[in-house]
Amino acid sequence: MKNQIEQLKKDKNAVVLAHYYAPAQVQEIADYIGDSFYLAKIAKQSKADIIVFCGVYFMGESAKVLNPDKKVLMPELTADCAMAHMVADGIIEEMRIKYDDLAVVCYINSTAALKCQSDVCVTSSNAVKIVKSLPNKNVFFIPDRNLGSFVAEQVPEKNIIINDGCCPVHAQITAEQLLSEKEKHPNAFVLSHPECDAEILKLSDYIGSTADIITYAKQNNANEFIICTEDGVNYKLITDNPDKKFYYPNPLPCCVDMKLNTLEAVLTVLQNEDKEVFVEDSVRKGAILPLEKMLELAK
Ligand code: 13P
Ligand code: SF4
User: Fold this and answer.
1) What pLDDT, in 10s, does the model give residues 10-51?
2) How far is the CA of 150 from the centre of ligand 2 (A)?
3) Model confidence over 160-212: pLDDT tens digits?
4) Pocket (CB within 6 angstroms of ligand 1)
5) What does the angle CA 76 – CA 82 – CA 84 come to, to the nearest 5 degrees?
6) What is the pTM of this model?
7) Distance 219 CA to ligand 2 centre (A)
8) What CATH class has 2-81+258-279?
9) Cα-to-centroid distance, 19 and ligand 2 (Å)
10) Exposed / middle / buried, residue 135 (Cβ in 10 Å: 0-12, 13-18, 19+)
11) What's the CATH superfamily of 173-247?
C-alpha cells in the first residue's frame, strides 16, 4: 500500500498532511506531520494540486478555506472533532451585545460557521501570544474551556469570558489516573496539552501543543515522561527518542475520529479522489479572515 501511495502522490502531484494523532502508519507515509498550526501553514503554502488531509474535519475544512482552488481530500470525511461544535446558538451575538469592545477568539478546533462569527483564530501553540497582542480588553474564547482558562491565567490583564466546551479525549484524563502514573514513575516529567482539565495542568511540569510537547521531550535531558495527550504522539516521541520512556494515563487517551485515517483509506481516496471537502463560498469568505489574521499575528 505504501508503494502505491507514493506512486499516486507523484502521478497526481498530491501531498499528504497528517496530524500527530493520525495512526503511525499514516504518519510514516505523510509528507508533512505536525500540530494544527503547522499543518494550517503548510496547507496555505502548498504548491500541490491535491492535499490529502489526515486529520479531523475542521482541519480539512480550514485547508480548503485557505486553498479554494485546490482539491482537498480527506481519507474519511466523517472524522470529526466533537469540540468543534460546542458553542450554543446565539451566544456569540449575546456576548457582542454585552461587551462593545469584544474580540471573539476562536480555537481552530471549530466549524467554519463558528470561524465566520469570530475575529481571530488561534491554536494551542499560539493562543497566548495572539490573545496578548489584541487591543481589546474583553475576549470571548470559544469553544474550549480548558485552553480558554489556560490562556486567561497567562493573560491576567484581559477579561476573558470562557465558553463551556471541551475535548472529550483530554477531559477524560483525571488527576487520579495521572497521580497513579506519577507514583509508578516518580522521576518522570509530566507534559500536558492545554486541552486537559486545570487539575491535570496543575500537576504538570510543562504545558504545550502536540508539537511543543514533542520538541520539549527531545530537548529535555530527562529520560522518562508522562504524556497527557492523545496517544498518536507516541510515534514521533519514540522515533525521536529511542532511549527515552513515555508513559500515558490509563485508559490510553485515544481520539477515535483521528484513527479513521487508516493507510487503506489514504490509498483509496488517492485512487478515487472522491472524499472531497467543499466549503460554500459565503462561509469561505467569512472563515478565511480569522484564519489569515491568526497566520499574521502568530508570525
Ligand atoms: P494541536 O494544536 O496541539 O495540534 O492540537 C490539536 C488537537 O486536536 C488537540 O486535541
Ligand atoms: Fe477534537 Fe479532542 Fe480529537 Fe483533538 S483529540 S480532534 S480536540 S476530539
Assistant:
1) 999 999 999 999 999 999 999 999 999 899 899 989 899 999
2) 17
3) 999 999 999 999 999 999 999 999 999 999 999 999 999 999 999 999 999 99
4) 35-36, 109, 123-125, 167, 193, 195, 209-210
5) 95
6) 0.96
7) 26
8) alpha beta
9) 11
10) exposed
11) NadA-like (3.40.50.10800)
